Amino acid sequence: MHEMMIATELLSQLDDLAAEHGLSRITHVSVAAGELRGIVPEALDMAFAEASHGTAAEGATLELEIVPTRARCRQCGQVFQPTVDSFLCPGCNLADVEFLAGHDIVLSRIDGDS
Amino acid sequence: MKINVVKRVLEANDAVAASNRTLMSDAGVLCVNITSAPGSGKTTLLVRAIPALAEAQLASAVIVGDLQTTRDAERIGATGAPVTQINTEGGCHLSATQVTHALHGLDLAETAIVFIENVGNMVCPAGFDLGEHKRVAVLSTPEGDDKVAKYPTLFQPADAILLNKIDLAGPLDFDRRTFYDDLKAINSRSPMMELSARTGEGVDAWVDWLVAAHTQHAQTAGA
């Protein structure tokens, strides 16, 4: 249930953003999360709803986009899309990668009422 | 009103983790975060390694995370190493801030290696930077030979992988070929060590890896 900490951190940022932009409440939140983060959408929804009571984002809808993984091979430099059970580089057949996408959780958009 | 933002959701945790890392690097301390399922032998591996590291003049301190009890801290404390138990009371992983609080209770000037024994869980701890320099993933043979493929996010970022309880591999029909084939596809970069914390077999290699990691870290950190 690592979704709870993600929801808590997200809600803290949303409170800051509401204050920064003079929003009385936030109605919609868009988040893009890398597939490697293993976020279960239903679990994040539940954690967000639970933790949002009394915050600027109470009652907001949460949209979660899962971003596919992209990696660069540290051995030969090839950029490729690993699968869930294989990080093998198609160029050199080694699994030694740095991530270009699919590893982050990013708050990308909010809708709110001023 | 629509507002486009690009904000990393875990930036607060990551910033605290970076500051933990700097604090330890400045003190010449290597931090090793150990992750695995519950019961794979993290505590016993530490109880084995700490006296051997002390013989190599490397003093250890341990931060240990569990949902409840101080049992692991008591076992590790018996080695003489300073240990701080964090009870997450339901939390399935440690956060960087919890590690910061624990670090304040340690004398880093008298410490060479800080071990973080994470909460036993194959999923949640993988995504949270605590400020470690090295991450170690442990699998024990009773968990099954298919776990690397099933939980790749635990093994992919690991700087070393330990296969523990190899004394049970035979009776439990642990298939090394499956394990090694899966690992090769997930992480071919990091060393893999087979050992048994119970019998002591292979523990030397684990200790040697820690000593080498500390030496390399001390050179890099300029300590």
Strands of chain B, total number? 8
How do the strands of the widest beta sheet of chain B line up side by side? 4-3-5-2-6-7-8
Strand content of chain B is: 15-25%
Tally of DSSP helical segments of chain B: 8
- Count of folded domains of chain B: 1
Could you give the order of the helices and strands of chain A? Answer: HEHEEEEE
CATH class of the domain at 3-68 and 101-113 in chain A: Alpha Beta
The total of beta strands of chain A comes to 6
Write the layout of secondary structure elements.
The complex is a heterodimer of chains A (114) and B (223).
Chain A: H1 3-20, E1 25-34, H2 41-51, E2 61-67, E3 70-73, E4 79-80, E5 97-101, E6 105-113
Chain B: E1 2-8, H1 11-26, E2 30-36, H2 42-55, E3 60-66, H3 71-77, E4 83-87, H4 96-104, E5 113-117, E6 134-140, H5 147-150, H6 152-155, E7 160-164, H7 176-186, E8 192-194, H8 203-221
Parallel strand pairs in B: 2-5, 2-6, 3-4, 3-5, 6-7, 7-8
Helix pairs in contact in B: 1-4, 2-8
